[in-house]
Amino acid sequence: MSRNIKQVRQNKKFYKRYNADFKDVVWRHLSGEDKTALCNRFRLLVEKPSLKKILGAFATETPPRAFCIAAVGKLDKPGEDAYQLIDTNPLVEPYKKIVTHDLDGWGARRTPDKTYLGILDQNKNALSLRKKRYFEYLLRCSLSLSMKEKKRIITEAPGLSMFQIYSLIKVFEEELDTWYKLKSKMQQTDITNLVEVKEKEWNKLVGYKYLQF
Q1: Confidence bin at 4 (pLDDT 50/70/90)
Q2: Which of 36, 66, 78, 167 has the smallest number of Cβ neighbours within 10 A?
Q3: Who's near 30: CB < 8 A, 6+ residues apart?
Q4: For residue 31, what pLDDT is reported?
Q5: Cα–Cα separations (whole angstroms), residue 78 to 137, 162, 194
Q6: Phi, psi dihedrals of residue 95, rounded to the nearest 5°
Q7: What is the pLDDT at residue 198?
């Protein structure tokens, strides 16, 4: 038996076992309303959601990690077996930007709000409004920057070069990916505490920025 064929068979066994565990530990405990809400959130065109239909809509052999996180987040009291399913899910990248701390209690991405400070409005580079909003969103979500560092970026934003702006965007995105990929429940609890601190700091910065107008 070739190594590739053996690997394929091992993968199929893993996916079959994983799907059975996901169905038993998570899926069967969700209400029909919760299942439909998950499908709508992940833009899956599925009527009367079943795990089989979900997998068909994803075109994957197992639900992506992001979907598992969102599903586990809807459980009243998820146990360690539910978090173990998140930890062992191999499809880490797909749909990762859908997962937010606000909705799922996972990672550092936040649900975008309507607040727009216009940090880059005075910047001479040609940036779309969407890109400007995205820059602000990433700055808000950063957990590694101190309040002083974020204030400095806001102050110096008008003079940033295009290279500096895109470099910061890349750094911010990589940071969010790092928080998202942390596995254990305890690590995510630590993130929750940090998010609360950073959100209070951001609200102070919002007030600071508005005072500049």
Answers
A1: low
A2: 167
A3: 38, 71, 74, 75
A4: 94
A5: 30, 44, 22
A6: 65, 15
A7: 94
Residue 37 CA to residue 73 CA, distance in Å, equals 12
Residue 3 structure tokens: 């190594």
- Alpha-carbon span 123 to 78, nearest angstrom: 46
- Give how far Cα 174 sits from Cα of 58, 120, 144, 145, 204, Å: 25, 21, 11, 13, 25
Distances (CA, A) of 28 to 31, 68, 84: 8, 13, 17
pLDDT tens figures, 157-210 = 999 999 999 999 999 999 999 999 887 676 787 888 899 999 999 998 887 654
CA distances from 73 to 29, 86, 98, 122, 198 (A): 12, 11, 13, 40, 22
What b/e string do you get for 136-165 counting C-beta neighbours within 10 Å, with b at 16 or more? bbbbbbbbebeeeebbebbeebeebeeeeb
Position 202, amino acid: W
Q: Which two tokens mark 91?
A: 């499809």
Half-sphere exposure of 118 (CA within 13 A, CB side): 7
Is the overall model pTM greater than 0.70, yes or no?
yes
- Token couple for 213: 């107008």
